[in-house]
User: Fold this.
Amino acid sequence: MGTKISGFGFYVPENTVTNFDLEKKFDTSNEWIIERTGIQERRFITPNETNTSDLSVNAAKKALEMANIAPENLDLIISATLSADHSIPGMGVIIQDKLGCKDIPAIDIRQQCSGFIYGLDLADLYIKSGRYKKILLIGAEIQSTGLNLTDEGRDLAVLFGDGAGAFILENSKDTSDIIDSILHSDGKYYKELWKESPNSTHKGRVLVEDIQNGNIYPKMNGRTVFKHAVTKMPAVILELLKRNNLTKEDITQIIPHQANFRITQMVAKRLRLPMDKVYSNIHKYGNTTAATIPIAFTEAYNEGKFKKGDLIITVSFGSGFTWGANLIKF
Ligand code: ACO
Assistant:
């Protein structure tokens, strides 16, 4: 039993926010953002009009259309996000309802930037076990409404964008598109990139002080995240290659989580790979967290970076810390 990627697609909101637009909101500059991150623009939703589940449904419809599958024929939904519509319930059930699926199970996972990598492994194992035959996997985020768009929050505010991407995974009798996956986490670093509030020890989850002192916004130790990202992503790629008796020369395209262009450049440098083998589209969308991998995968395919039969590695690193990689023979 194998797992076939039969459909993929993505959706980003229409509203484009350039670095020059951010210059008008807080003390930053187009030059600083481009030099440190490679980002030129990102998409932000119009607040109070769109939920993360709406972005998810738009991306899912494209993947379903490519796979030629009706929503009522899906067996399972796996939804990866750190920005679900609500804290209760999870977002998977809302996607299940909005798509008009049967009463199939819907699982929410929250491994932040590594959510899609974890979800792909989960979907692959469910299919290979024979439990489910047609799975919708989604990575989606609305980051813009959760950012501190003032001088105080500028280090993180320039990095993130909104968007969603989706895969349809199906069972296949002969070959498997998903060859192998390796996942890791190291929770001792969880405060290096985190959001303190809402907090389960606080009555009502969010205190007035949390709002006043900015604990409702994400906080990051950028240098520590950078150091770990540029170490762990190459390491897990090499681990995956070794376990499958492959060399980096066998891989047509590496599709990394779009965290920051400097991180992507450093991953390529440490693996001694030319930049045209390590995909980047961060200049257009910023860091869309759980959505970067399916968005990048779709754009890389549309740009002819890989074709049927090629070997691809998707790799990620993010808050937790969590990281991992999938080996795909597309
Ligand atoms: N605009 C202008 N200046 C800024 C901004 C901004 N948006 N943000 C910070 N600065 C200032 C700082 O205040 C500081 O000023 P000072 O020297 O007067 O004190 C100066 O720029 C340098 O700040 P540093 O934090 O030292 O900048 P650094 O060179 O480390 O770059 C960055 C910051 C880009 C965040 C870097 O640490 C990095 O790339 N980290 C990786 C983290 C990352 O990309 N995370 C993505 C999300 S996590 C993930 O997806 C894996």
Notes: The chain is about 30% helix and 25% strand. The pocket of acetyl coenzyme *A is lined by residues 28, 32, 36-37, 113, 154-155, 158-159, 193, 222-223, 225-226, 229, 259-260, 262-263, 287, 317-318 (CB under 6 Å). The chain has two domains: 2-176, 179-329.
